[in-house]
Design a protein that fits this description.
This is DUF4034 domain-containing protein. By secondary structure, the chain is mostly helical. It contains 16 helices and no strands. Helix 4 runs antiparallel to helix 5 and helix 10 runs antiparallel to helix 11.
């Protein structure tokens, strides 16, 4: 993968070629490949990841509705219906759409119905955590449950407990909880720092939750809009280096990188690069193969919405670490 002719590829399916094929079929209005893929999926980790990617593709279409119409008895179709409903509600909220409340209610109902239909499935509960982010003032009782440890905020802890019963240390559930914490307190990130370290401390070796503190560090300087030099100074700080090394030692060295989140791999490569640990970062870049994500690299540019600039920063970092 080395060499000046290398061009990275962005695709949410990453190394999961079967997921990529199903997503491509979705874009052409067909649901059979999605149904077949989900029928063959084993393990909640893969199930959560695949349904999330498929929902992001399907949210702008009626494909899942068609699938449910043609196979009303399908549990997978019911879960995907809840996934799509949540995706639409979250997108509407971000855009400030007038239909946000209506879509939120539809999604909440879809998640509750999916939880009843597929009681062993963690995904409907993950969806309910995602919807909690829309309740910034925590008006719903299920969004202001007392936390399980000191220094953590009240929140949708009961929903997280339901996920944990079904799939302990579910990656997406904890990222959704982190988003809830961000939305709850838009100012200082102390609650988010506490949450990320608490979640990582509960996780076994090999869990992607060990990467969570790196996301909070990126969010901090995203909010501060620091220039690139400030970011570099951030990562060479002792506590930042400790978080990066911890993610490397307790997650990366033990995970199956071809099944790992591309975002997690990019956040780790970015942290190690910023910390001047080029040899360790090179291992992460190699594990990415041809793939990359625009975040967090985009935050090292003056225009975070410019994907071309993000790609250029990624390529420079990769070349420095791999010695291209």
């Amino acid at each position: 993968m080395a060499g000046h002719g290398f061009r990275p590829v962005y695709h949410p399916a990453g190394h999961d070629h079967a997921l990529r094929n199903a997503a491509q079929d979705l874009r052409t209005g067909r649901w059979v490949a999605m149904a077949r893929l989900l029928d063959e999926t084993t393990g909640w980790d893969a199930w959560t990841r695949r349904t999330q990617v498929l929902a992001a593709v399907a949210a702008g279409t009626d494909v899942v509705h068609t699938w449910r119409t043609e196979q009303p008895e399908s549990l997978a179709a019911g879960v995907m219906h809840s996934r799509v409903a949540v995706e639409r509600a979250v997108r509407a909220h971000r855009a400030g759409h007038t239909r946000t409340r209506e879509l939120w209610q539809e999604a909440w109902t879809a998640c509750r119905e999916a939880a009843d239909l597929a009681p062993a499935d963690p995904v409907p509960w993950v969806g309910l955590i995602a919807l909690a982010t829309l309740d910034g003032r925590q008006r719903m009782a299920e969004h202001r449950i007392a936390p399980p440890a000191p220094m953590l905020p009240p929140g949708p802890w009961g929903l997280l407990a339901e996920v944990e019963k079904r799939d302990p240390h579910n990656r997406e559930a904890h990222h959704r909880m982190l988003q809830f914490v961000y939305a709850r307190r838009p100012g200082p990130l102390s609650e988010a720092v506490n949450y990320a370290h608490w979640a990582a401390s509960q996780a076994p070796v090999g869990s992607a939750l060990h990467v969570l503190p790196l996301y909070v560090r990126v969010e901090r300087y995203r909010r501060e809009r620091g220039h690139e030099r400030a970011l570099d100074l951030h990562w060479v700080a002792e506590d930042a280096l400790r978080d990066a090394q911890h993610a490397l030692d307790t997650w990366f060295l033990f995970c199956a990188t071809d099944e790992a989140s591309l975002l997690d791999l990019n956040h780790l490569a970015h942290a190690l690069f910023g910390a001047l640990r080029f040899t360790e970062a090179a291992r992460v870049f190699e594990s990415l193969g041809p793939y990359y994500t625009t975040l967090p690299w985009a935050y090292r540019t003056p225009h975070p919405d410019d994907r071309v600039l993000a790609e250029e920063v990624f390529l420079r970092a990769r070349a420095r670490c791999l010695g291209d």
